[in-house]
User: Fold this.
Amino acid sequence: ENLAETPTKPGPPCSGQRNRPRISQRLPTNQPTKPDIQAPNGTGDLGGEVYVLYLVERCSLLTEKCQDRRFMIGPTDNNMKNPLRNRVAIRVLSFVAVLSYAALLELSPRHLQKLLDAAFEQYNQTRGDESDPSRIRVGRTRTRYNHIYSNATNNVTARISFNLHDPKDWQLSNDFNLYVKCPLGEVTIGKRKVPTGEYRSGKLPQSLVRDDEGNRILDFTTTISTDLKILIIGDSVGVQLAQAFDEMVGGKELESRTVVWEAWRGHDGGTVVAPTRGGGVSALWRMTGLLSKKMKGKPPANSGGGGWSDKEPNLLLANYDKTKADINDQTIGSYDTVVFRVMHGWMKIDEITHERLVEAVELAHELLGAETVVLMTVPFTNNVKTFGDLMKVKLINEDMRNIAEGWQLREHAGVRHVLVLEYETFYNHIIWTSARHLGYNVSNPLHASQQEFDVEGQTFLFDRLVSNSEWPASIPMVCADTTLLKKYEKKRCDRNYLFSDGMHTCPESLASRFGAALACLLGCVYNRGHHGPRRNTTQEGIRACEKDCNDQFSSVAPVDDQLIGNHTTLASFSSTY
Assistant:
């Protein structure tokens, strides 16, 4: 129905018409055309009133007159008893629609897409067989970050996705980690478990549980579904994270984890989970140094230096998937992704050079076939003994970021993508928040600038427990309160549920954010919208997606409570789809 009055004289032709963005949406033919709108009386009957309004506009009405201006509504009441009143109402609706359209033209494409997503969310329902990991249907509703989506929809393929849970519904048991743990109750040291007089309650500061609006900080766990083959290479900290990651991808519930070799009795040296939830592989290789050809033939972990031989990669590339017919005739073949936990502590700061980092990335492809490498930045630990060390670590981390951003400029590189997981930032956010809880006058990490981190860090980070150890822990890193600190002159404190010592984490509290961050980062490269090859994986898109993932999960940024549980699947994409 043409609701605009027919002009007596045609207006000027519309200018700039070809470049004007258009709004369009085709409703599925198998869906009812009437949206699920309830009347105020709750009956769902709108009494014949207008329920759908489409604006078809060929150019802006704010600056010029245009022909072919139509507003379509329907269904309408053909027996209008008061034409004048309805004409006024229609003109008001038309004017509001025009202003709304003009406002939309001024919005960014991201905001425009967000509005369209909300308008048609009811039509984006899950279809197909979700048991097929290559056809996981994931969200078209953005979270607060532009590249992270939730809720089910069509036309996307996610090779890696994840779910966040209330710990009461799914708890990370940390069963694969037999030694570096954070047992609750009385704190002991040594194999003989000598009591220290300290205690760990397992209670976290409220500022690390939820924010004032009820959104989650550390109060969630993560499960992951993927068909990717992922290998984590690292020292004991890397081993902790890999063991937790193996549980997140289903190694425990599927009983699909194999200890390939032990570094020493009872301590994982190489492990493989095959299959993961989703049909992929998750593996661990314990090393004490970055991969380097000059270390080939040297003693392996837990000897220092990063020694290795052909034996280790060959074992990790064998097949351990017992669900396949003949595991002896099949191999993993290659890994899609290698994650490096840079082993500061085992490696001296001066040994973590640009050349060593680049060589490790290149060997990840040469030895293991990886097309994507993730570099974890070096965090503050008890191995950072002075402010000078802290500044050198900062330079190493900046070098990692530069390597990642400039990798595409290299010719004939087997690795296609290098990503950065901001592990330094994650530790900083946890330590700063803990310090505020203990009474230190430091900034809120979510609002602190890098300069504030540098200035404040050189003072309170080095406030350590008094100990005979060569590596005494930082008080804001390991202490739950200050009661024993005052009583025993900083020689002891009741311990928090964040770090087991000045280096290792309590995975039950911190590993879920690591797992979500890693799954999110890999989605930036491997997930895609629509069908066909991985399009939209431009470096600009990947870097923006990488930033969103780190900002949300490698931090203490609250996670919206509505994303926890409810079978909500999350996935990241390097560009909108």
Q: What stands out?
A: The two ends are 33 Å apart (CA to CA). The CA atoms of residues 104 and 115 lie 9 Å apart.
